[in-house]
């Protein structure tokens, strides 16, 4: 009878457990020195080795010929535990045996010593599923069991356990297994099973397993089923598991960068025709935006980080580098919010997923279709980027070498007298706000507020600070949170309680201090 890979390759000694050396080293030492506790609590995410460690510990404390704290797996005790014929080692599923009557039955059995083995071991899996009354019934026995009894509790939900249970056990936290370790384990199992698989495919499976060794072996089992001697490639794994190719994601965002709506909708159509789940595709897009944000936050390590995160062709790699420079942080944050809202809507409501997905892609291609603050910030960031590139891209005037002979002076030309421009008088009693740099520094954690304050004209008038801005700026700055932040910052930099008044610019203010948007349009 065929056995699944995760069952066939379940660890049989502490040394075979992957990625939990901080736990297995302690358990081995305790078994070797015969200092085993009366109760253990193994907690952590799925597939990290909790139940396997519990069974190995049960074998180690009953083994007739232990080897450096590990069970020998050859004596009667070890073999009977492996084939589940040992009556003194009971594995209880708390999800289906969670009543107080089940716990009382267990307590009644505790008084009897083991029949064949050294210790009677109770492995209670998913212990957080026990009822409150069952926990209360277990307390006393768990605290002071007979010397021949060992309790091993395993759970994925530590927060659901009563503190009275946790305090009576020796607790070990199993962490998620690193992808590199999972890749090595997959490579070893594939070699032993005669499965031919590429390194890229192994890395992708290890990444999809999300730190769980059982999930990694299950995915390898699914990808290798019915393939014979053929090599499992990266494309085979993506097709088998229904994963969207990363090149497809990069091509979609390349179309979004270029504001090419027909091409972007064509890519969505191809994904839909391939029977991919659009909800999963949305989650992949969110993960891609998240990785792009991290890469922009660490420019020196961005290329290395992206290569570790993605498996893509050389053509897609070039496009990815270009997108990293084209997208601003504000734009990526806006994309993330739009995609998350779309995923929540598709997951909660019965809608036409394809149509809703197409509308989402159109919204990503054209930032002007949204009036949310994040969309406005993204548009402002792109305008600032264009201004910066325009200033930096201006060619320098060519240098002219001075002649060795003094030039003949030109006849004097009467300069045309330019009309004198009278400064626009400010309102009576108003004077410029001199603490503007300190104010902007104080508001550095509010980039949306700072962006509009830089484009505004700010003056002082008695005990009031006057802020003249355009219509969009007035809408943003008069929001309760934004205005409260400005008033707090003004008090900090001036040391006085000043009233902040935000007004829309009149014709005079617009002529004297044009906004950034006005300059771009001009």
Structure description:
This protein has 522 residues and is an alpha/beta fold. The protein has four domains: 5-174, P-loop containing nucleotide triphosphate hydrolases (Rossmann fold, 3-Layer(aba) Sandwich); 179-241, Helicase, Ruva Protein, domain 3 (Orthogonal Bundle), CATH 1.10.8; 246-373, Zinc Finger, Delta Prime, domain 3, CATH 1.20.272; 430-521, 2-Layer Sandwich (GMP Synthetase, Chain A, domain 3), CATH 3.30.300. It is 53% helix and 9% strand. The protein contains 25 helices and nine strands. The chain has helices at residues 5-8, 21-32, 50-62, 76-82, 100-110, 132-143, 163-166, 179-193, 199-208, 213-224, 234-241, 246-257, 261-273, 278-297, 302-309, 314-326, 329-348, 353-365, 373-392, 436-442, 447-454, 471-477, 480-494, 507-512, 516-521, and strands at 39-44, 89-93, 120-125, 149-155, 170-174, 430-432, 457-461, 464-469, 499-504. α9 (199-208) crosses α10 (213-224) and α14 packs antiparallel against α15. The radius of gyration is 34 Å and the shape is extended. The termini are far apart.
TL;DR?
53% of the residues lie in helices and 9% in strands. It is built from 25 helices and nine strands.
Give helix % range: 40-55%
| Average pLDDT taken over every residue | 80
- Rounded to an integer in angstroms, the radius of gyration calculated over CA atoms is 34 Å
Number of domains as seen in the coordinates: 4
Do you know the CATH topology of the largest domain?
Rossmann fold
CATH architecture of the largest domain: 3-Layer(aba) Sandwich
* CATH domain class name of the largest domain: Alpha Beta
The number of helical runs is: 25
How far apart lie the N and C ends?
A: 78 Å
How would you characterize the largest beta sheet? 5 strands, parallel
CATH superfamily of the largest domain: P-loop containing nucleotide triphosphate hydrolases
Q: Specify the overall morphology.
A: extended
């Amino acid at each position: 009878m065929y056995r699944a890979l995760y069952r066939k390759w379940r660890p049989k000694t502490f040394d075979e457990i992957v990625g939990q050396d901080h736990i297995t080293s302690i358990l081995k030492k305790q078994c070797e020195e015969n200092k085993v506790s009366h109760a253990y609590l193994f907690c952590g995410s799925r597939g990290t080795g909790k139940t396997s460690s519990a069974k190995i510990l049960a074998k180690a404390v009953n083994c007739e010929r232990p080897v450096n704290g590990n069970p020998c797996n050859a004596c009667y005790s070890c073999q009977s535990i492996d084939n589940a014929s040992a009556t003194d080692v009971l594995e209880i599923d708390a999800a289906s045996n969670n009543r107080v009557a089940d716990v009382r039955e267990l307590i009644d059995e505790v008084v009897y010593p083991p029949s064949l083995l050294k210790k009677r071991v109770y492995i209670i899996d998913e212990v957080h599923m026990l009822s409150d009354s069952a926990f209360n019934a277990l307390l006393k026995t768990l605290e002071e069991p007979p010397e021949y009894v060992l309790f091993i509790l395993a759970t994925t939900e530590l927060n659901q356990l009563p503190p009275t249970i946790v305090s009576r056990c020796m607790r070990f936290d199993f962490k998620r297994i690193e992808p590199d370790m999972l890749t090595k384990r997959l490579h070893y199992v594939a070699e032993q099973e005669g499965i031919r698989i590429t390194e890229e495919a192994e890395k992708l499976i290890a990444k999809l397993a999300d730190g769980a060794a059982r999930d990694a072996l299950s995915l390898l089992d699914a990808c290798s089923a019915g393939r014979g001697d053929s090599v499992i490639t990266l494309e085979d794994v993506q097709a088998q598991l229904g994963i969207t190719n990363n090149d497809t994601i990069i091509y979609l965002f390349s179309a979004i960068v270029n504001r090419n709506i027909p091409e972007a909708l064509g890519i969505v159509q191809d994904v839909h025709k391939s029977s991919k789940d659009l909800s999963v595709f949305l989650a992949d897009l969110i993960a891609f935006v998240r990785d792009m944000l991290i890469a922009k936050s660490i420019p020196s390590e961005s290329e290395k980080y992206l290569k570790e995160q993605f498996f893509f062709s050389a053509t897609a790699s070039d496009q990815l580098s270009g997108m990293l420079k084209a997208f601003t942080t504000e734009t990526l944050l806006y994309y993330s919010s739009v995609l998350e809202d779309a995923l929540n809507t598709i997951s909660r409501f019965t809608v036409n997923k394809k149509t809703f997905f197409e509308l989402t892609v159109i919204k990503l291609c054209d930032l002007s279709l949204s009036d949310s603050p994040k969309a406005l910030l993204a548009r402002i960031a792109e305008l600032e980027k264009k201004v910066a590139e325009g200033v930096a891209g201006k060619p320098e005037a060519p240098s002219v070498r001075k002649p060795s002979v003094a030039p003949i002076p030109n006849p004097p030309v009467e300069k045309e007298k330019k009309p004198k421009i009278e400064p626009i008088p400010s309102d009576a009693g108003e004077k410029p706000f001199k603490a503007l740099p300190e104010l902007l520094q104080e508001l550095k954690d509010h980039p949306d507020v700072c962006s509009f304050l830089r484009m505004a004209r700010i003056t002082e008038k008695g005990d009031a600070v006057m802020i003249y801005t355009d219509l969009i700026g007035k809408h943003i700055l008069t929001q309760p949170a934004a205005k409260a932040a400005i008033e707090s910052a003004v008090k900090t930099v001036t040391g006085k309680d000043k009233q902040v008044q935000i007004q829309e610019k009149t014709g005079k203010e617009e002529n004297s201090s044009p906004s950034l948007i006005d300059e771009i349009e001009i």
